[in-house]
Amino acid sequence: MLELININKSYTIGGSTFFRKQTMKVADDICLTLEQGMCLGLVGESGSGKSTLGKMILGLEQPDGGEIWFEGKNLLTLNKKERLRMRRHIQTVFQDCYSSLNPRWPVYESIREPLANFEKLSASEEKRTIQELLVAVGLKPEDMTQFPHQFSGGQLQRISIARAIALRPRLVVLDEAVSSLDVLIQHQILQLLMELKQQFKLSYLFISHDIMAVRSISDPLAVMSNGRIVETLSVKEPLSSMKHPASRQLVASILPSHPRDRHASKLVSSSAG
Ligand SMILES: Nc1ncnc2c1ncn2[C@@H]1O[C@H](COP(=O)(O)OP(=O)(O)O)[C@@H](O)[C@H]1O
Ligand SMILES: [Mg+2]
């Protein structure tokens, strides 16, 4: 469904009187494949280039070189009109709900926006669609008249998800979508994402710095470090089998359930598999 071929991207920083101009490579010959109906996990330490890669797939950043194939089309060679049409099929959920939900809008307006941009629905069809979406993400139809400040973090993320799936996209890029939530709510949202994936026939690119969150939903999992994919792992292989130092560092950073179980690798081989 999605194939990235030799994606390269650099940022130039500095160049002022005080800071020397520097080029920083955030994507270094990245090749990745996401099969239809799967969830590809992308994990790596902060600053490794994960979000930039997500943005390039969403068309929010332009790679310096490479190809991004989505359902048989190279996204980088589409003209503006084709690209716009393609956008409805690739949606996103970010960590920060406020970047997708306008705090001054009732929930109704936030979910309605993509529908209004791409679909010509009557007012009553729109209302019914919005209510169905809210129910699909575990909220109540009457929640649509409430404002973002009236919801908890987990509920806001449910609304962001409803907005992202409103147009029945085929691919959803989830960038740190559960990272700001507490562990219990994280678990509920991950569960919801798995259910929605089945129900709406979605494919996911699940990006996070949290290897346990990525592991719990993704297959396969790709580890990113300094703009490179350094290792990929299928769900059948244990985390402890990873060899690259960057992967091992991520595994070692998993907190034990009790301080006395300090050796994370032991934890991983025994419980996370
Ligand atoms: N627009 C930008 N201009 C310059 N540098 C950027 C820009 N966006 C991101 N970066 C830098 O690129 C690197 C990778 O960022 P990012 O893709 O956000 O990483 P991650 O999501 O893995 O934390 C970081 O060092 C970040 O500071
Ligand atoms: Mg990021």
Automatic annotation (TrEMBL):
Question: Which PROSITE patterns does the record match to this protein?
Answer: ABC_TRANSPORTER_1 (PS00211), ABC_TRANSPORTER_2 (PS50893)
SMART domains linked: AAA
Can you name one GO molecular function term for this protein? Answer: ATP binding
Supply the InterPro entries for this chain: AAA+_ATPase, ABC_transp_ATP-bind, ABC_transporter-like_ATP-bd, ABC_transporter-like_CS
UniProt superkingdom: Bacteria
Key words, A-Z:
ATP-binding, Nucleotide-binding, Transport
| Similarity-based family | Belongs to the ABC transporter superfamily.
Return the protein name: ABC transporter ATP-binding protein
Look up and give the organism this protein is from.
Answer: Paenibacillus allorhizosphaerae
